[in-house]
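Milestone M4 deliverable, item 7.
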Amino acid sequence: MNPTDLPSLRETLDAHGLLAKKSFGQHFLLDLNVTRKIVRLAGPFEGRAVIEVGPGPGGLTRALLESDAGRVVLVEKDPRFLPLLAELDDGTGRLTVVEADALKVREAELVEPIPAHVVSNLPYNVGTPLLIKWLTGPWTPHALTLMFQKEVAERITAAPGDDAYGRLAVISQAVCEARLVMHLPAAAFTPPPKVASAVVHLVPRPDRPDAETLKRLERITAAAFGQRRKMLRSSLKTLGGAALCEAAGIEPDARAEVVDGAGFLRLAGALG
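Output delivered:
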């Protein structure tokens, strides 16, 4: 069925007697004007596959099916929504629905050999772990357009010296070009969350660090930002302290919050 011929999302939810589950971190985006804007920010897809995690009633899915995506692969953990999502299948073979936990899914098995985008309104309780999985895991998406709580989105895109600058910014920006592209108020969702949301667009860098460097970067940033008010000579003491900093060309008396991504990558290199 053509998505434009379907009942409204609110009517569909009411017909199936469905409400968001707090335990799954669900907040539904029912305004198709908003979901279409998110899809425009994510595209063009030029026939590539798109993975959507946590589609729920399918608001973003409907917009993706109107786009130039070659395939749309949905990963939904909540079985209550499978019948709703099946109703979006137009019989062309573009839509695939997978009942699974996205943290455990092997994305390459769902979409390769086609390069794939990830476009999702991520469940709040797994947004950050999923991002880290896609940034540091064996499967590399073509691009990511993801909705998070505003606070998390700002942590991803923060610059050195910003209050939000920390591990998530360093790792995200070492792997991708990251931009905050859209803000959404809590009132845009059903039920409204207690916080505002924002959409981040991430495109993998051609010179992204290799897997071993990323592992070292995770160790370095965990130590450095775990004690962010301490000087690096102290917070990195178990990894080499002042000697490690000097080997990387970093001032040992500096604090983590002022060191840029290139500096942390030099520290990761020196640790290796």
